[in-house]
Amino acid sequence: MYQNFKWTWERKGKHIFAPSKDADRRGEEIIDFCNRAVDFPLCFYHCRKGGHVLALHGHLQNQIFFKIDIQNFFYSISRNRIAAALHTVGFPWARNFAKWSSVRSPYTVGPRYCLPIGFKQSPALASLVLMRSPVMAMVAQAEKAGAFVSIYLDDLICSGNDEAVLHELYAGFLAAFAVANLAPNPGKLVPPTDEIVVFNCELRHGLARVTQERIQEYFAEPRTAASQTSFVTYCAKVSEANLF
Fold it and tell me: What is the number of domains present in the chain?
């Protein structure tokens, strides 16, 4: 029997699972394997040093942006897809480790057994699944058309300077996510426009900065001096590559 989590709770509308020691150990093995044997696409900024800040900086040269957020990303990924993705990259015991890495879904819609929030291997496994999806063909098409694409787990941003091309790519990505059984969050879709908010940051041509709302939210609570220094440094980092 797979005792792979100790308890579960809900926070801000999201179901979170605390892994058991055995599941955590297997998670470490999956992560170690991915670090050694898997070359994730360059557009996967959650796998790169610099993360979402580096992704923001990559869009600064462009004038038009769109954003697609995957709804319940982890919980949309079935146990079978996890096993297939692990098998594809040559991981031994793929099906066994897929069982240790999945839970009974807390949702009525979607796969019965799926990837949970809270397991350390979930981001790597979700990335392996996304690598095998039709979304990656659209990334290649977008880059060939001169657009810039960044993916940070469940957030995809695409930017360019040709509005007609961006509208075509937006429709293409929506279709690719549908084929991949990864439903976009309708409340967070942003069609091509000249400015978007992502990662609590404003992004437009030549400028990225932490939103005033996020800054006010941060300073609305008591913070240590070290925390304040870290936050101010982060805000400066977001804006350091601005063109003007």
Answer: 2
User: What was the pLDDT predicted at 12?
Assistant: 86
Q: What is the pLDDT of residues 3-20, one digit of tens each?
A: 899 999 999 889 999 999
Q: Is the pLDDT of residue 1 over 80?
A: no
Residues 136 and 210 reside in one and the same domain? no
- Three-state DSSP class for residue 20: coil
Range of the domain at 206: 201-239
Cα within 13 Å of Cα(146), Cβ side: 11
Nearest-angstrom CA–CA distance, 244 and 241 = 9
Query: pTM for this one?
Result: 0.94
In a domain, residue 49? The reply is yes
Nearest-angstrom CA–CA distance, 198 and 155: 8
Domain at 138, CATH number: 3.30.70.270
Distances 161 to 28, 46, 57, 92, 151 between C-alpha atoms, Å: 42, 25, 16, 45, 19
Compute the distance between CA of residue 50 and CA of residue 2 in angstroms, rounded to an integer. 36
Report which secondary-structure segment, H or E, holds 27.
helix 21-37
